[in-house]
Structure formats: C-alpha cells, structure tokens
C-alpha cells in the first residue's frame, strides 16, 4: 500500500475523502461500452461494475479509458474476484449516469470513478480475501423479498416492464445463441434458462451479458439455487406467457445462504420433472381412495382441467365412476412398459444411465439396473363423456391385470 493511502470501508466514504483504498468483491459486472470522443475523435471505453465489502454496503464503480484499456481491464476482472481500487474520484451516484441503469441495492449514496491513466485497480489476495468473497452468498435484497413464480404468472401482462426479485432453482440451461442487435444489427449472444420454485415448475429467464452467460455453464439443474435481484418482466408472444430478462440492473446470488434457499434446494433435488415421473410422484402422494370425497364426472374433470390457468401447477384428486373403454395391451410393448432405476426409482427415458444427479449409480457413472413397470394408456368413459389417454402405472396395473411385468430376454 502506498505511503499515505488508507483503507476505508465503503460505508465510510464521503466526497472529501482523499488518498483512500477500497477492497471488495465484484458482485455485478456490465458489458463494455465504447463510443467516439467528441473532443479528439478517439474511440473511448467505459466499464461499470459493483463492489461489496459487507453484508449491507455496496458501491457502483465506473472505469473510463481508451477502448483498448477499458476492454483489457474488464476482461481481467470477473464476478467473484476480490480487488482493490484506489486513486478514484467520489461522486454522487446520480452524477453523469442514470441510476435506473445501475444495480439498485442497499447502495452507498456515492459512486467511484476511475480514470485509466491515474487510478489503481488490482486483484487482492490478503488473508481476509476468502471472507470477503463469501459475501457472494448473501442476497443483495432481504431474503424474503421475492415473488413466487405462480404469482408472477397470475399477474400476467400487468407486471410487464416491472423489476422484481426471484428465488428459483435451475431446471435447464439452454445453448448459447447469436441474435442481431436491434440497435445496430451486430451479433450478440444470449442464453435461455428454465427455472422453477415450489409454486411452478417451468419459467424462462433470458441471459444477455457475456459474464452471466459464461457462469450459467456451471449451473447444475435441480441443484443450483439463484436469487435474482431486479430482473425485468416481459411478455413473450411466442410462449404466450410472462418471462424474465437479465438487465444491467440485475444482481445474481448463486446458492444463497438463506433458509428459503435451502428449502427450495431440497425441493428441487427431489421433485420429479419428467411427465411420467410427475404422474408417479402424484400417485404416491395423493390421499388414500377412502379419504377422497370429491365425486366428479368426466365432463367436470375436463372442465376443471381446462379452466385452470395454463401456467399453474394446480393438481386435484377426485373419485370417478367409469368403465375402461380402451386398453391396448396387445400394442407395441415400448408404449406399454417403462423402466425405473432400481436404486432411486427415477424413470429412465431413452438412456442406459440414471440421470438423477443424487442417485448413487449416477454419481459413479455406472450403468443402471432397471426395473420394468407397466405404463398403460387407457380411455375412461361414463355417462357424460370420455377421458382419453389416461395412464395406469404399476403396481395398480399389476393388480388390474393380475400379472406382473415380465420381459422375455432376446
């Protein structure tokens, strides 16, 4: 540390402070922006990021310099790096930049401005670096300040354009794809992910910044939980549903250390996602038949199913008196028999290996011992109509047919 330079916490900064140094972890990073200087016609660059040095203190930082210098610096420092900055100017947060385009956190009322030729910015590897880095697991908003996905979807287009917080588990990470920028037609990258929570199993979030797109490659389906602070909601005509978009205001906390996140992680690790697995899970969790007292006809079941919100995961149980009017046990065996992992009971779909990340067989990379079960499609008919493509699984199907599944080896 240079003579006369003193370390200050973000919360202790003020405009009259000189010769100070700040140490913090980068919790958000925006893409590099370039422009032509009106003063000398040279290409210039500006890069914005956010530092944090305590659970409650964060500050936005702006780096100005040549296009090459700003690009080089932005490539060196990434989200999760602990760094030091010194020889900066302390300005009001709203000075020279619209606050709406910056992370909206428990912010310092100031921002730091760095000039390429006069500032100092470097990696920090002191003894307390790991402790500072652990701040990455603390959400930047109160732990309970988020909307459930079912609430987001129920509001529909009423929330279009709003910024909200979400606590979700990753369900699927899509491929990186290139699209044309609306502003200047240049190629930019984006990536769609599907997330879920206890209220809804499928919601799309689009990632636009290169830093987040890269980090998403390490997110594990049904294992990674994320707190998204300030994602923007939009309405997708293609999906006919509300979706979320990452913007320059968004701050992402991976696997936050909160009770709410731990509860969601346990749910995500055990919830079935394949259609047949969902049905099996539901059949195991519903009440015993004698405890169900809602009697419905096929017409009432159809009406209730169609009247439910398409974006909800509402499930219901009912008693139905009907006859089986279609039972194709003479059809293709591939359509009437499915397979479960013998260790964890996860359904296997077109693979010799169990895809359940928590299965002992899966973690060892071994071929799965599978158990065949009935998976029969039937039609159920009463005096009001017919329910098509219903499914009967083992062990109920075994009892109806009075015959267990038996596969003759070839």
Automatic annotation (TrEMBL):
Keyword check for DNA damage: no
Domain Replication protein A OB: 160-252
Cross-referenced Gene3D superfamilies: Nucleic acid-binding proteins (2.40.50.140)
Alphabetic keyword roster: DNA-binding, Meiosis
Classification via SUPFAM superfamilies: Nucleic acid-binding proteins
UniProt entry tagged with the keyword DNA-binding: yes
Occurrences of domain MEIOB-like N-terminal (ranges): 4-141
One BP annotation, GO: resolution of meiotic recombination intermediates
Single GO term (MF): single-stranded DNA 3'-5' DNA exonuclease activity
Family: Belongs to the MEIOB family.
Protein name: Meiosis-specific with OB domain-containing protein
